[in-house]
Amino acid sequence: MSEQTRPVAVVTGGTRGIGLAIARDLADTHRLVIGGRSRESVHEVVASLPSAEGLVADLADCSPGGSLATALEELVPRLPRVDVLVHSAGVLRNGTVAEAPVADWADSMTVNVVAVAAVTRALLPALRAAHGLVITVNSGSGFTAGPASGAYSASKFALRALSDSLRQEEREHGVRVTSLHPGRVDTDMQRELVEFEGAEYDAGSYLDVTSVVRAARLAIDAGPDASVDMVSVRPRGWRPAAT
């Protein structure tokens, strides 16, 4: 497969966790664009993959002329088509409404929602050209919210709404949109959350990241006539909270 015939996949948050796992899974078949905030971490991942380039940007800076806009202005002309766009970048801010600073709410909405809209908007012509797929990596927190998770859950509810709207808007252009909702996954972010909760970390209680990759593959490998609108995947022993 030549560089010209390889399908193109753009993965934000591609330097760790779910994003990195999806990028590695696609590496043999796709030309990759790996998004991340740190130039060093992006370059390290790019160097480890057979056909990849980097997109270094701070998703918290969505202002005109800012970090994200500048990076996209450089990238978009090089991508006449995008077959898969995976939004895996995100931030987790914990705290009650009474205690969490307003900046945590602003950061959550900017990175987890506004940046997703900005990246998608910039790449829509290339996605339409390829009849491509957008995967928004959401969370169980996109369905329910608990104490001290208001900022994160609010952003994930909003991300689900963005995904639903985009799906309806882009059907006529052949672009599919999958909202992917993993439960708790064994990642660095999960360790941060468990530390905040003051609990003992037990990796066996959480999803292995490869299970989330398989869920993403369900949408990626679906035929061109199919749209996998939403996938929810939970650890095997998970039960909904009592109400």
TrEMBL record:
PROSITE patterns: ADH_SHORT (PS00061)
Membrane is among the record's keywords: no
InterPro entries reported for this sequence: KR_dom, NAD(P)-bd_dom_sf, Sc_DH/Rdtase_CS, SDR_fam
SMART domains: PKS_KR (SM00822)
Keyword terms: Oxidoreductase
Gene3D superfamilies, per database record: NAD(P)-binding Rossmann-like Domain (3.40.50.720)
Cross-referenced NCBIfam families: PRK08219.1
PANTHER family for this protein: DEHYDROGENASE/REDUCTASE SDR FAMILY MEMBER 7B, DEHYDROGENASE_REDUCTASE SDR FAMILY MEMBER 7B
Name listed for the protein in its UniProt record: SDR family oxidoreductase
